[in-house]
Design brief:
This protein is about 50% helix and about 10% strand. The protein is an alpha/beta fold.
């Protein structure tokens, strides 16, 4: 299934300087190394009887790059991503952009990648609420949409060094937070950590209500030190303008780009344009999940985290 050109209008290619930085960052010094490792991966895949017959070469390439050409880790991550599609159908099946749940998610949240990369070759994604009623917010459907957009980015022909997330906490209530920390929270975290080779460089939180600040204060000590250091909470939203520049931000945040809602709508149109591709991807999963892989993708009941959240004094 061929990807459509609508992605090329949303994501700019890296400049020559960015490309050099990206290749150095992902341990890809030359094209020969990429071709050699891709051939190695394709040969290895051909011996995996539980793998699907057709795996998008771009998926393999992006997993390889995300794991900096470390082959053993690339094999493990690829298998875990294909296994997650088998184990967690609530996130990876019925991904029609025209389904009621995805259309609802599109109306409730704004999710958009900015067209250009940072100087270091990272892509910036911005997330905010579009509709503020907590009753309209379903964390499973929203994460499903997030993963669909991320899958499109991974399938782009443009190489990049990693992701930077900007999360606008304006209008988030206790009910919204409870949705995120509900029964699917551990599953979502497991999928992001084990199934996707996400190179999340930084997380910037703006307009955070006190509830969200308190929640992050509880969660941060439980995180890996690298992830903990990557989270930045800004008291003044204009600080992200100083960090990323007006050329990389929507006009909502003082940037030179269009409003976040208009940019999100373009991304949702791209998702809709690839409806056939998403349908084809539903069959790209392993037929049987090895026990070791299943245990790595098992989301334990981390009641300590949810218990800590319950101790917050929620007004």
């Amino acid at each position: 299934m061929v990807m459509k050109n609508s992605l090329n209008t949303l994501l700019n290619a890296p400049t020559c300087a960015q490309l050099r930085t990206i290749r150095r960052n992902i341990n890809e010094e030359c094209e020969d190394k990429l071709r050699h490792n891709e051939r190695h991966m394709q040969q290895w895949i051909s011996y995996q009887r539980h793998f699907p017959q057709k795996i998008d070469a771009k998926l393999v390439r992006n997993v390889l790059r995300a794991n900096k050409h470390v082959l053993d880790r690339t094999k493990r991550k690829l298998e875990q991503q294909l296994a997650a599609r088998h184990i967690y159908p609530e996130f990876f099946q019925n991904r029609s952009p025209f389904s009621q749940e995805i259309e609802q998610a599109m109306s409730v949240v704004n999710i958009a990648y900015m067209p250009s990369m940072t100087q270091n070759g990272e892509r910036i994604a911005v997330f905010s609420l579009n509709r503020f009623e907590a009753a309209q917010f379903n964390s499973v459907h929203v994460i499903k949409l997030v993963l669909m957009i991320f899958d499109l980015v991974l399938s782009s022909e443009h190489i990049y060094a990693g992701d930077i997330a900007i999360f606008d906490g304006a209008h988030f209530s206790a009910a919204h937070v409870a949705q995120y920390l509900g029964p699917h929270f551990n599953t979502i975290m497991t999928i992001l950590k084990e199934a996707y080779s996400i190179r999340l460089k930084e997380i910037h939180v703006i307009n955070a209500p006190s509830l969200l600040v308190n929640m992050l204060a509880i969660i941060k000590p439980l995180l890996h030190p690298n992830l903990r250091r990557s989270i930045h909470i800004h008291e003044n939203p204009s600080q992200i303008l100083d960090i990323f520049g007006a050329q990389n931000l929507p006009s909502n945040y003082g940037g030179q780009l269009r409003t976040l809602r208009k940019m999100a709508t373009d991304w949702y149109d791209a998702v809709s344009d690839h409806a056939d591709w998403f349908q084809a991807q539903e069959s790209v999963q392993i037929s049987t999940v090895p026990q070791k892989t299943r245990s790595q993708l098992h989301s334990p009941d981390q009641m300590g985290l949810e218990g800590s959240f319950r101790q917050l004094n929620i007004d």
